[in-house]
Amino acid sequence: MKLDKLNLAIIRHLRDGRKSFNKIAEELEVTENTVRARVNRLTEEGVLNIMGTVNPDLIPHHNIIYVGIKLKSRELVPKGEEFSKLRGVISASIVTGRYDIILLVMLKKDFTLLDFLANEIEKVSDIQTVETYVVYKNFNQQIPYIF
Predict the structure, then answer these.
(1) What tens digit of pLDDT does each residue of 44-78 get?
(2) Residue 31 to residue 132: CA distance in whole angstroms
(3) 89 and 40 housed in the same domain
(4) What is the DSSP letter of 123?
(5) Are residues 81 and 103 in the same domain?
(6) Could you say which DSSP state residue 2 is in?
(7) pLDDT class for 100, splitting at 50, 70, 90?
(8) Bridge-partner residues for 10, per DSSP?
């Protein structure tokens, strides 16, 4: 799907997920039906996902960690998909640099870092090394609440 100027403008306006299609249409000088049709198509094509997000620092007894993973094999895409399905994983990204895959993971009081490492990471084969980074403070980060 082509992301033209109008699609990108609509997406920018949707940063405020509660903004009405009518208000967006007025500000962009198009019809409400145009905005509605574009949003529907962007959603159907998997380009846009409208959801509530939270500041992870404000959720009691929850922590965010980043996990760097170096693989033994070069099966990056299949392994990235496997990691993305593990409990607690918000996102899995194939990256350049020291690691092959970086995970963004949410932990909570009854799902600790040890639980994640011992019970989830072990479900994926071909891991060479794992390094974790506990986040103490976030800036400008909003995440979906997954638990």
Answers:
(1) 999 998 888 889 999 999 999 999 999 999 999 99
(2) 48
(3) no
(4) G
(5) yes
(6) -
(7) very high
(8) none
